[in-house]
């Protein structure tokens, strides 16, 4: 299935597992919302991050362009989401971020990030499902 920006608009449940190279694990549970705006949509994610024996409120935001280009809050390009799923990458010196999007069970979908480098070593798998009601 090929997706476009309109397919993401709305609220989603997100569950994320984080597996660090040292064997430690983390978990995020919350919501993700794509809100339409001029030339794209704002993505805002809110929830609880459990890591290192503690639980913390967490939030992050991105800007998605109409062609599924994703930008950081400060306007820097992050990566492009492949409309039919597949791979994308981002180099954040000195670490490499590789993602695989899987839309085969749409509207449920996943994004799996593998991050490697001298500062970071983890796999982060996010599962999204539309919120109903």
Describe the protein's topology.
Layout: H1 5-8, E1 10-20, E2 25-37, E3 40-51, E4 54-64, E5 69-71, E6 77-80, E7 86-92, E8 95-102, E9 109-116, E10 121-130
Antiparallel strand pairs: 1-2, 1-10, 2-3, 3-4, 4-5, 5-6, 7-8, 8-9, 9-10
Outline the structure in words.
There is one protein chain. This protein has 133 residues and is mainly beta. It is built from 1 helix and 10 strands. The protein has one helix at residues 5-8, and strands at 10-20, 25-37, 40-51, 54-64, 69-71, 77-80, 86-92, 95-102, 109-116, 121-130. A 10-stranded antiparallel sheet has the order 6-5-4-3-2-1-10-9-8-7. The longest helix has 4 residues, at 5-8. The radius of gyration is 15 Å and the shape is globular. The model has no long low-confidence stretch (mean pLDDT 96).
Descriptive keywords:
ten-stranded antiparallel β-sheet, 133 residues, mainly beta, 65% strand, globular, 10 strands, single chain
